[in-house]
Every structure is written in structure tokens, then in C-alpha cells.
Amino acid sequence: MHIESEKQLREIYGHPKGRAKDKQLSALEQHSINFIEHSPFVTISTCAKSGLVDCSPRGGKPGFVKVLSATCIIIPDSKGNNRLDSLVNIVETGAVGCLFLIPGVDETLRINGVARISTSANYLSLFATEQHPPKTCIEITIKEVFLHCAKALMRSKLWASNSIIERATLPTMGVMINDQLSINESPENQEHMVARYEHDL
To answer: What is the pTM of this model?
Structure first.
């Protein structure tokens, strides 16, 4: 059996109460701004016109996402692989959701809103000191913002030292991609890949 309506879901889960229901805000305030300013990592979810959803990581120094106002943040589109999945989706629908994380903190910050791709000189100047300044920025007009409870990260023990998995446990990226694409050539080793990535950060 599959669930096909919110009514069916509510029959199983009920409705949120108290703080879980009331914590959703329509704008940033001191604590959400402080969270963003300490966060070096955010995931961005976007939706294509076709309905296909994408989720992409973004990272930088703590505070790399800039808060322009209580209802507007700017995310630099740092140098990547030029797939442009998130950017194309934003151009098509503008729908966006963000999840901010801070290492060592189990709570997360969720933001939902409407995004646009901008080449504003004023926006780009905010990142002019970066080694590879972005060509564009993602401007997000905030519609919903709220702190998300710690349960998921507590269950995963994401920040615990004994949760760290040695990189050698997995094949290198080069090996995995060669296997996925049936490429019969020597894969790039992990050291060369890391060195190449570091040059492009």
C-alpha cells in the first residue's frame, strides 16, 4: 500500500504541535543570521520545470553565504564542473530549499524561497577576494525559515570522531566513475584528484 494523500499521512502521524508548528518564520532574525554566518556548508535543492528535483552541496569559509536583509541571502556560484543543474533549474522554476550545517552542531537551519541567478556587480564584489571569484550569484528571496531539530544528526553521529570513515574504505572517484561509464583506462589516483581540486577551490 502506498500513501497518496496528506489525509492518509495525517491519519498515521497526526499534526505538529507547539514549537514544531510555531517555529516557522517568514524572515531571518538574530539567531538564523548568526547560524548562517557560522556555516561553511549548505545544500541547495532545486526543481526543474519537468518536476525532477536536484540537491547540490555548496561550501566555503564560515559565512560564505551573505545575508543582505531579513528576506534575502546571496550564495556565490563557485567554480564547479559546469553541469549547471541547480542554475538551470532556478532559471526554469526559481523554487529553492536550503539546509545549512555547522560542524559540531547537530541542529540545522532550513530556508525555502524563490531564487534568481544574478550577475550584479554589487553582489559579485562581495566575493572579489576569493581565489576564483564567482561568475554569478544565487539570490534567494526567503519565504520560510526555521531551525530543524538535532535528531537526524544525533542518530547519524555525524560529527563524532568514531563515525569518521577512512577514505580508503571506498574506491577512488576515478575508479568509481570509470566503472560506472565502462571506461577502460587507468583511473586518476586520489592524490592527483585532490591536488587538482585544491587548485580550483
So the answer is: 0.93
Backbone torsions φ then ψ of 113, nearest 5 degrees: -175, -160
Cα(128)–Cα(25) distance, integer angstroms: 32
Beta bridge pairs of residue 95: 114
Report the alpha-carbon distance of residue 171 to residue 185 in Å, rounded.
15
DSSP H or E segment with residue 193: helix 190-200
> By C-alpha distance, which of 84, 88, 14 is closest to 49?
88
Q: Strands, E, within the chain: which ranges?
A: 41-47, 53-59, 66-69, 72-76, 95-101, 108-118, 137-148
- The three-class DSSP label of residue 83 is coil
pLDDT at 14 over 90: yes
CA gap 165, 3 in Å, rounded? 36
What is the rounded distance in angstroms from the CA atom of residue 101 to the CA atom of residue 148? 10
- H-run or E-run covering 35: helix 30-38
Cell of 132: 576564483
Q: What is the pLDDT of residues 71-80, one digit of tens each?
A: 999 999 998 8
Q: CA–CA separation, 47 vs 117, rounded Å?
A: 14
